[in-house]
Amino acid sequence: MGSNILGIGQSALAAAQLGIATTGHNIANASTVGYNRQVLSQSAAAPQSQGDNFVGQGTKVDQIARVYNEFLGQQVNNSQSTSNQVSTYLSQISQINNLVADASAGVSPALQDFFKSVQNLAASPNGSAGAAARQSTLSSAQALVSRFAGLQNRIDEIRNGVNSEIQTTVGTINSYASQISELNKTIEKAQSVSSGGAGPNDLLDQRDQLVTELSKLTKVSVVKQGAKFNVFIGSGQALVVGDNVNTLAASPSLTDPSRLDVAYVANGKSVLLSENSLPGGKLGGLFDFRSTTLDVAQNSLGRVATTLATTFNSQHKLGQDLNGQLGGNFFNVAAPVSSPSSSNTSTAGINATITNASALTTSDYRLQFDGTNYKITRLSDSKTQTSPTLPLVIDGVTYQLAPPPAAAVPAAGDEFLIKPTVNGAAGLSVAISDTSKIAAAGPTTTAAPSTNTGNGKISPSTVDSTYTLASLAIPVKLAFSANAFTGFPAGSNVTVTNNGVTTSYAPYVVNTPVAYTSGATISFSGVSFTVTGTPQNGDAFTVSQNTNGSGDSRNAVSLAALQTANTVAGNTTSYQGAYAQFVSLVGNKTHELEVTGASETKLLAQSVQAQQSQSGVNLDEEAANLLRYQQAYQAAGKLMQIAGQLFEVLLSIK
What we know:
- This protein is an alpha+beta fold.
- It folds into four domains: 2-67 and 618-652, no CATH class; 73-290 and 572-608, no CATH class; 348-422, no CATH class; 444-545, no CATH class.
- The chain contains nine helices and 32 strands.
- The strands form nine sheets. Strands 23, 24, 27, 28, 30 and 31 form a six-stranded antiparallel sheet that branches.
- Helix 4 (127-193) runs antiparallel to helix 5 (201-215).
- It is elongated and about 165 Å long.
């Protein structure tokens, strides 16, 4: 009986000792990230039969188990992934929001200064004041160009930063995957040694914590296979399968080498993943920011710059400079970027040309050839247009095959990425440096001789893009008789438009009468004007080249009017209106992410709290456990002491 009591005491002492060690381990790791508290599980040892009774044999320790709830753990990981995606997006977009929201750094002040100088030129075209106004116009144009370039440089810096973070994040994901794979091996070996026991708790904690850290970078799901974890990321890509690791790699986009995408590397083969196949976490936030805000920001800025330059150039060409010549380009405009995919099997190229700047959008486009048809997809909304031949015009851009030496026809499966406005801000520059080449005047003039007997009046003339200096090499004298005009240049395209109805006299035959209607617009050879009132037979009106452009500011007035004209986004808004829409888009998205981020942070905190309420170490509870095991240890020692005394009594019997 004494030996039985000694054995019971020894089992109790061993159990209490393990309880103290487990409690101490919990206390020591109370602040360890990812640690789950451990509890001692014990049960009564098998009793010994003695006659009609069964005598207890003490206790045995079943296992030291960690308190871990898989559901709560996965909930934390999901919340972590969503929260990090939003916070990453917010931190990136805040850079652009702070940039464009700054009144002194934005484009609007520079636009206002530029058009103010054009208005001053329209008000003072002559003398020293006119010379100063011309110089001011060029200087403010240079300042506007510098403002666009400065914003574009900052966007480029942000884009490079995104590329760098994608590369770093991919490297970290691969590191976590490798560590999880190694822990899979170690845990499997440990559990095989323990013959199905609880397993190495601390190693299990480390592996779960690695999965949690991985969820901060991308969406993660875990499937258990025995003692091992199979880890899947994004939309289901296998990252870790048992001991095997499939890695990711930051790789240049097929159609844009300056843009880093993520490739999935398995069995030695690399496959580029689409951005939307890697949602969640920091990586998902970076991709979301780049595709839905950064690209749109750059294209929006480029659209304003491109439309401004194109429409201003068009009007400037309709004027006359101080040298008596028609105006040329005031700004240099960046051409669209067309990039063939590196996987194309032909050397064909696609030329993209802006033919209607007012119809430009902020989207990029993908052109694909299937061997029969060309399909162009607007990437912002996936709207497509298909044609068996080129050229094809979409949203103000004409797409056509590049001339030789490029191959004439793409091969089936070839694709191209076209970015119409991506370089609009960076490529904007002032085309002239000589103030005398600013075409502020109108190139034609009209007059009514004082000898006319009627009260007919002719308006100042305007010209369109078909006008050339040769159109009025000889002044045109229009004679009025029998309520009609004659004298238009032979062969010219004469039209009369009244209340939207146009009557054509083309080609004009000499002495053909052109019916007169007061207020109707008369056009020929690119020149337009109106005659009002009641001319008399024998009255005449002349249309000729402007020989004294220094005192004329008609074209400058038209240039200044472009500031408030609806020339952007399908002629629905002005330059500043389009820029304001861009600023509003960024600001609203930033506010949306701030609200969403605060909500996701709270949800994450609640998930962590729910998990820690079960798995976290409570020092008060551990202190109570420590006292309980201490008392159990002391009691077990006392029991063994009593067993020893019983032995001594037995040994003393003679």
